[in-house]
TrEMBL record:
Residues 224-350 form the Knr4/Smi1-like domain. This is SMI1/KNR4 family protein. PANTHER family: CELL WALL ASSEMBLY REGULATOR SMI1. The lineage of its organism: Bacteria, Pseudomonadati, Bacteroidota, Cytophagia, Cytophagales. It comes from the Bacteria. Signal peptide: none annotated. SUPFAM superfamilies: SMI1/KNR4-like.
Amino acid sequence: MMNLKSIPCNHQLQQLQLADIPFNTIEIAAIPEPFFKYEGAQWFDHKAFRDILLEKLTLHLHSNVLKLLVFTPKENQTYTAFAYLAKQEIVAMQLPNSGNFKAWMDNILEKQEDAFSDSFFKSEPDPNERYLVEFGKGSFSVKSGIGVLYDDKPNETGAYLHKKAPADYNKAALTNEKDQFIQNYVRTNDEVVNDEALQQLFHEFIQSKNLIPNPPENNEKVYSEFETLAKYQFPEVLKILLNFHNGIENTGFFSAQKILAEWKIWKGIYDDPNWKLEDLTGNNQADGLKTICVYTNPYWVPFYSTGGGNFYAIDYAPGIQGKSGQIIAFGADTSQISLIAGSMEDFLQQLISGNINL
């Protein structure tokens, strides 16, 4: 693949002039000949062309193209285009005014020019008029009078491109804000696990409470799916315990599948762009400096239900005086993120002693 030049779509973009923007000359391969949506149609299937174009560019640029601006050329010059990538970068391009791409674009513009003659004022189209064709997922539009961007206001190009950024970029900015917040606390590799002590305590717990665990299962697929989504290892302490059970009746202990399913639900809340960082942190309290004040995050792994949508979880994003792998309480009705136990061993000991109810 050619070495593409791109520019970040951030606040600095607004300062760039047209001369500051690096352009790439790109050939879009395998664009099909124009075709109709159905037999007898007057115009080619422009929405199908949009989907094909975005797909081809996504493959060529090795990044999902969320939006594409194409400016029609003067005379026989190349098309000028700007592709907004999912990674919040813009690739500026010169696209050839030839082949099937030109045939599709000519048909789009022919329809636009026919609108002049069909309008109430019967105005004639300007042969030198320049158009902007916008392609996006689920959207397609043509606007006239866009040549002013280059002809009269080249110094405002960056500000214009920043203004035209897809709405998805706001989602990305919100996600980035949450990521920056949580990464200050994440400690997924600091947990110390005593395998023998953990097994001994678990069996003591089962015997002392006369419990019958559900038979263990092979959970490798569950662990693999979790690790693919979470980008960190499935908790080792849970793997050890799940060697001896797959859920325990009359307790809140989850099976491996239930752990994954519940973790996905809470991760979905955290990732939802409708939940801003201020929403996640605004109504919760930390337990001193042991925990952090956030409603949920992907580094809490719920493994035990306390009822009513509330849980005990392994905490891999502790407060500055907390410990990786500590056990916390969180959930729908929990305003304070309480520290329950310093470790899984401590948690089991409290269950045995009755300090924590089943």
